[in-house]
TrEMBL record:
InterPro entries: Beta-barrel_RND_2, BSH_CzcB-like, MdtA-like_C, MFP_Cation_Efflux, RND_pump_MFP. PANTHER family: CATION EFFLUX SYSTEM PROTEIN CUSB, SLR6042 PROTEIN. The keyword Lipid biosynthesis does not apply. Residues 217-294 form the CusB-like beta-barrel domain. Pfam families: Beta-barrel_RND_2, BSH_CzcB, RND-MFP_C. Belongs to the membrane fusion protein (MFP) (TC 8.A.1) family. The keyword Repeat does not apply. This is Cobalt-zinc-cadmium resistance protein CzcB. The lineage of its organism: Bacteria, Pseudomonadati, Bacteroidota, Sphingobacteriia, Sphingobacteriales.
Length: 366
């Protein structure tokens, strides 16, 4: 009789445990499964930079080499106007010279003749003017004929003309007590020098004494390979770097393209004109030239920084609509500076994410 209460308590406890298990099972069955898929919200999308795919003629980058040369329109070759023997040569190759600066002097017997002609012509002017004035007085008094007066006027006019000629010769051929002075006609750099002291100089020699170049603008002479001729045209912008200034970029444009190939090396010669601030670029320097040339091909392009590169492929994060984005594989035809030209995967007008696109890509790709 003492065992019945114990059995009753055990049975009730077991019933309570079974009910708890059933309730717990029901509770788990009614809890929805958590959705872990990444979602883009409107507010998050509005905080991102959005870019639009553009369409334009594709650019090509052509890399060439060339040499710096003076601007021939700002370069002067100096030839001797007289014969003589060189005295002191006051400049050296590469010197900066000013307009009117004396470069050298020549001891020239011709200058003595020019000086004599100038002095004699001035004396003739004074003499013939005096005779003319006297003849005019005599003509008024009836002591000289019309013919005498006309002869005096003619002599005076000839003397004046000769004096002007002699003065012009002297003004061109400057001289002082040291002799004939070779002067700089323009300011610039002395880029050629063919004269030393005690050199005999002849006026009929075809060799110039000096060459002065204004280097505020210079040319870059470029050889264009036959395969690149169709890609460039006059006016194309270029960027130039020199070995002496590897971190400095000079901007210019193609100024001239020859119309025939060089028969020796089968290249086309082109010329680029650039500003030369501070005269940094010197004739003879080696230069690297980067030409951006347009092509007939129309391709959509985006900023290359908007692309995501993963597993040897390029991707863009494309906006489908409000808070809807997807990963789009793209093929890049070529890149020119910051532009990436797309051959497939995007079309003009598509909207792409241009900021935090790597974060979006990593979140969406799974």
């Amino acid at each position: 009789m003492t065992t019945y209460p114990y059995l009753k308590i055990t049975t009730i406890a077991a019933a309570f445990i079974a009910a708890a298990v059933v309730l717990q099972s029901c509770h788990h069955a009614e809890t929805p499964e958590k959705d872990s898929k990444f979602r883009v919200t409107d507010s998050f999308l509005s905080s991102l930079l959005v870019d639009t795919v553009q369409a334009a003629s594709a650019l090509s980058q052509i890399t060439l080499t060339g040499n710096i040369a003076p601007d021939e329109t700002k370069m002067v070759k100096i030839f001797p106007m007289v014969s003589g023997v060189a005295g002191i040569v006051k400049v050296q190759l590469g010197d900066v010279v000013q307009r009117g600066q004396t470069l050298a002097t020549l001891r020239s017997p011709e200058m003595a003749g020019y000086t004599k002609d100038y002095i004699s012509s001035a004396a003739d002017v004074r003499n013939t003017r005096r005779i003319l004035e006297s003849t005019q007085d005599m003509y008024k008094g009836g002591l000289a004929s019309q013919k005498d007066l006309e002869q005096a006027q003619s002599d005076y006019q000839k003397a004046v003309a000769e004096s002007k000629r002699a003065g012009a010769v002297i003004s061109i051929n400057k001289s002082n007590e040291n002799g004939y002075q070779v002067k700089a006609p323009i300011p610039g750099f002395l880029v050629e020098k063919n004269l030393t002291s005690n050199t005999q100089v002849r006026a009929d020699n075809s060799q110039n004494l000096f060459t002065i170049a204004d280097l505020s603008t210079v040319y870059v002479l470029v050889n264009v390979y036959e395969s690149d001729i169709s890609k460039i045209q006059t006016g194309d912008p270029v960027k130039i770097t020199a070995l002496s200034y590897p971190n400095k970029v000079f901007a210019g444009k193609i100024d001239k393209i020859d119309n025939m190939l060089d028969p020796d090396n089968k290249v086309m010669h082109a010329r680029i004109k650039i500003n030369n601030p501070g005269n940094l670029l010197k004739p003879g320097m080696f230069a690297n030239i980067l030409i951006k040339a347009k092509s007939a091909e129309e391709l959509p392009f985006i900023d290359r920084n908007a692309l995501v590169f993963d597993n040897d492929k390029n991707y863009a994060v494309v906006i489908d609509g409000k808070a809807k984005v997807h990963i789009q594989p793209v093929k890049v035809a070529k890149t020119v500076e910051d532009r990436a030209y797309i051959s497939s995967g995007l079309k003009p007008g598509d909207k792409i994410v241009a900021s935090r696109q790597v974060y979006l890509y990593e979140s969406l790709k799974d």
